[in-house]
Amino acid sequence: MRENLWISLKMINQSSPLNFDPAVESKRPFVSIHTTLAVCLTLALLQLMDGVLTSFGIKEFGISAEGNPLLRGLMQLIGPVPALITVKIAAVLVVCILGEISYQVSWVLKALIAVAILYLFAAVLPWTYILLF
Q1: Whole-model pTM?
Q2: Torsion angle in degrees (nearest 10) through CA of 59, 95, 69, 78
Q3: Where are the domains of the chain?
Q4: Which comes out higher in pLDDT, residue 44 or 29?
Q5: To 5 degrees, how large is the angle CA 126–CA 67–CA 65?
Q6: Any idea what the Cα angle at residue 25 is, between residues 108 and 31, rounded to 5°?
Q7: What is the DSSP secondary structure assignment for residue 100, as one 8-state letter?
Q8: How far, in Å, CA of 51 to CA of 5, rounded?
Q9: Residues near 130 by Cβ (< 8 Å), separated by ≥ 6?
Q10: Averaged confidence pLDDT in the chain
Q11: How many CB atoms are closer than 10 A to CB 54?
Q12: Does the pLDDT of residue 6 top 50, yes or no?
């Protein structure tokens, strides 16, 4: 009985994603948890900012001001605020999942950084400009 338990635990440990293999780890570029966390928090903050700015834009210009046709359709279906909350929560959850995946797939963190830059210039700054000027 005890031997079977030991074999089972050993098999679980070998299949664990946390299993450390120096040969594999030496080939994978090191990504600090702080870097990944900073990128994910930045994207979450950009989502929040876009949600707030979009809600102000929708109040001032109407639903037709939303550039994303899927989000615009959802707004027409369930209302602007519930649609924004739903979409932004889903987006933050996706960012969290991708942040976790980035520890095993090296290009995911680079993609998240690119998405953050794109989001800043394609969503947050345009709404800021439209609402302020």
Answers
A1: 0.75
A2: -60
A3: 31-132
A4: 44
A5: 80
A6: 40
A7: H
A8: 51
A9: 57
A10: 85
A11: 25
A12: no
